[in-house]
Amino acid sequence: MRKERRIGIITAATLALLFLLALSAATTAGAATVKVEPVTQSISAGGEFSVRVIIEDVTDMGMDQAVLNFDPSVMQASGIIEGEFLKSGGTTLPVIIMDNTDGAATFSYSLMAPDVGVTGSGVLATINFDTDASAEGSYDLELTEVVLADGNGKKIIVDAIFDGKVTIESELTPTPSPTEPPAGDGGDGFAPTPTPTPTPIEEEKTYKNITTGEEVKVELLDKELKITFKKNVSEVKITVKELVEKPADIPDAPGIVFRYLEYHIENVSAEDIEKATIPFDMPKSWIVSENIDPATIRLNRYYEGVWNPLRTEKVGEDTDYIHYSAETEGLSIFAISGEKKTGVEALSAARRVWGIVGAVLVIVVIASVWYIKKKRK
């Protein structure tokens, strides 16, 4: 009997130890990091800039909230755009407050469906700012009141919070580089040949008459833009341009940008466009080299001072490219972007731990019962 009691005590202790180990593993998986990206950046006074609030290594998140504090005497929040991370779990309920008096940009997003959460890393929100023309100096962008909860409303531990900083500089006039005087003008050299500026790739098409509701297929830069108008229009000129770089007067688009595009339409007002479908191809080589999650690739439209992510769908794939299509209600400047892969998901790891623990518990219990029965015989 004493041996049986000892075996029972050992079994209970083993079960308790395994339970504590499993509990410890689950608690660790629930921690996360929240940070501002880019950590530092420099802009000219009077310009615009954007920052992203990023979350890393979160498990089963169903709600996020944060306040980004800034100096309202030199900058003002102009827009808050929800990131794609939480939305990947379903429809969200957004709450945003831009307080340019006290200098606080507040956002809160919650998944509408109960018992649902997302796991991994991604963008919680993108916040756009305007700066004063007379501003100069370095200013902190401080995250406070960061609150995370899982799909059941339980608080998620935040391991670390990293703030950002922006440096605003007065715009300086560049000093021209000296050149050698040309031969025959008293010098003994030649002025260097200037490096040519890359020319954006551009193509345009004109249509004389388009009827109401007619879907026009426009072949531009080997892509088929589809556009529909709300009324009869004529002499419509559509131009697309692959930009060499982002226009200087707009903020950076959210995510890792692959390319900026500009679509321009003439002799038609914005209200006359019913919808347009823009196709684009993403090289797999770029996706791999930048470690991009293909599911996060999207087309963003710059409209009324903010970047707006468009509903983007994967429509095909071949050896070298993944093909996408996005819908928009107007034509302007666009950016193709994506988010970095999240790595190994903490939730999957936690489930694996629980699976192993469960298997060990079953083996221990079966072995203990078998041993006790054998001794009784």
TrEMBL record:
<keyword id="KW-0812">Transmembrane</keyword>
<feature type="domain" description="Cohesin">
    <location>
        <begin position="34"/>
        <end position="168"/>
    </location>
</feature>
<dbReference type="InterPro" id="IPR008965">
    <property type="entry name" value="CBM2/CBM3_carb-bd_dom_sf"/>
</dbReference>
<keyword id="KW-1133">Transmembrane helix</keyword>
<dbReference type="GO" id="GO:0030246">
    <property type="term" value="F:carbohydrate binding"/>
</dbReference>
<dbReference type="InterPro" id="IPR002102">
    <property type="entry name" value="Cohesin_dom"/>
</dbReference>
<keyword id="KW-0472">Membrane</keyword>
<dbReference type="GO" id="GO:0000272">
    <property type="term" value="P:polysaccharide catabolic process"/>
</dbReference>
<dbReference type="InterPro" id="IPR026453">
    <property type="entry name" value="PGF_pre_PGF"/>
</dbReference>
<feature type="transmembrane region" description="Helical">
    <location>
        <begin position="353"/>
        <end position="372"/>
    </location>
</feature>
<protein>
    <submittedName>
        <fullName>Cohesin domain protein</fullName>
    </submittedName>
</protein>
<dbReference type="Pfam" id="PF00963">
    <property type="entry name" value="Cohesin"/>
</dbReference>
<feature type="region of interest" description="Disordered">
    <location>
        <begin position="170"/>
        <end position="202"/>
    </location>
</feature>
